[in-house]
Design goal:
single chain, 422 residues, mainly alpha, Receptor-associated Protein, 3-stranded antiparallel beta sheet, 16 helices, membrane, T2SS_GspF_dom, T2SS_GspF_sf, Type II secretion system F family protein, cell membrane
């Protein structure tokens, strides 16, 4: 009991020391080296005197040392994005493959981080490793940034003594998955922005432009054609109840987002509908298959048991439908079925993928076949996104032209009619 209490006390002291080191201020310094050349840099220390002493120890003559001022906003840094983790993975893999010790690698990468929050995180991980923790245990302190899949791969690499190779595989995996996400976001961004612009333009015309024309028509006593009357009635409704429309749309979007987060059934239904869309559904389907193939290939190559690997794979597909299918496949594999048979039962995987997995299982090269599938579908996603962008651009212009142009024509119809009678 006393031993456990002492161990807990030591752990708390180490945590306090790490927190104290992390909170030390950073000093910007200017010094002259032995040749008289001006050098600049930064250093974390308790005070400026210690910085000057360290510079003199390195053979430099300190000129100015001042504490780095804290920014007024965002002093803790922005959130750590998956892209930050992908870049870090490539950096740590490259350094360890080059023979740089892990602790020194973390120190170098943390020192070059512009995101203060990520820098603090990497510093804490480095100090945990210095305290005797494994990389997997140190990363486990940040489960949001380094998910279960990431940590499982690192743990497998540490157990097999091939951590540098596994980190290189993880880096490639993160880069590929983030590239697919970026492609899909790029494909969705353009049409959404065009629709938003069209909505804003229509609102401006209904609230400010149409009332001017309506007053002119009323003063002239002109009989309004049906299209014009519809536009004028819509304008009158918007002037009286614009807040209903705006809050109704915002509330609808919010309700859908919250329902998707809280209800698995609704999220599953919504995604099923999305997957049936002509072009976008195909892109989402191919993206999920690519993520599944690459993730399972990476985990299997790292030596993670297939049943255990599929738990992490289910969350990495980026799809509720495919995630549920992978969990069902895990149950089938756990009772002794082959992976290709379990995949076939879901009805979500193309025959080509199932056949390649079957060949991989028979030949003992499952990871190689899964990587081939991932590369094929990643290329398919790239081509589909490029095609979608080329199709959407003229389509969005046509929609915008019909909405705005239709309103303009409807407003000028009475004027054309008056001009014809004269």
């Amino acid at each position: 009991m006393a031993t456990a209490t002492a161990a807990t006390k030591n752990t708390r002291q180490q945590a306090a020391q790490r927190a104290q080191i992390t909170q030390m201020p950073t000093f910007e310094w200017v010094a002259l080296d032995k040749r008289g050349k001006r050098m600049t840099g930064s250093m974390a220390a308790k005070n400026g005197t210690l910085v000057k002493a360290e510079l003199r120890r390195q053979g430099m003559n300190p000129q100015t040392v001042k504490e780095r001022s804290k920014p007024l906003f965002g002093g803790s840094g922005g959130s750590v994005t998956p892209r930050d983790v992908a870049i870090f993975s490539r950096q740590i893999a490259t350094m360890m493959a080059s023979g740089v010790p892990m602790v020194q690698s973390f120190e170098i990468i943390a020192d070059g981080q512009k995101n203060a929050r990520f820098k603090t995180m990497l510093t804490d991980v480095k100090q945990n490793i210095e305290g005797g923790a494994s990389l997997n245990e140190a990363l486990g302190q940040y489960p949001v940034q380094f998910d279960e899949l990431y940590r499982n791969l690192v743990r497998a690499g540490e157990a097999a003594g091939v951590l540098d190779t596994i980190l290189d595989t993880v880096a490639t995996y993160k880069e590929k998955t983030e590239a697919i996400k970026a492609k899909i976001k790029k494909a969705l961004f353009y049409p959404i922005m065009v629709l938003v612009v069209a909505f804003v333009v229509c609102m401006i015309m209904l609230l400010f432009v149409v009332p001017v024309f309506a007053k002119t028509f009323q003063d002239a006593g002109a009989q309004l054609p049906a299209p014009t009357q519809v536009i004028v009635s819509a304008s009158q409704f918007m002037q009286s109840y614009w807040w209903v429309v705006v809050f109704g749309i915002a509330g609808g979007i919010f309700a859908i987002v919250m329902a998707k987060k809280r209800s698995v059934k609704f999220a599953h239904f919504l995604e099923r509908v999305t997957l049936r869309l002509p072009v976008m559904g195909n892109i989402l389907r191919q993206s999920a298959i690519a993520r599944f193939s690459r993730t399972l290939g990476v985990t299997f190559k790292a030596g993670v048991p297939l049943v255990e690997a599929m738990d992490a794979v289910a969350g990495a597909t980026g799809s509720v439908v495919y995630g549920q299918a992978v969990r069902q496949m895990r149950e089938d594999v756990a009772v002794g079925h082959q992976l290709q048979l379990a995949m076939r039962q879901t009805g979500l995987f193309p025959n080509m993928v199932v056949q390649m997995v079957a060949i991989g299982e028979e030949s003992g090269a499952l990871d190689h076949m899964l990587f081939k599938c991932a590369e094929f579908y990643e290329e398919e996603v790239n081509n589909a996104v490029d095609t979608l962008a080329s199709l959407l651009e003229p389509l969005m212009m046509v929609i915008l032209g019909i909405l705005v142009g239709g309103m303009v024509i409807a407003l000028y119809l009475p004027i054309f009619k008056l001009a014809a009678t004269v």
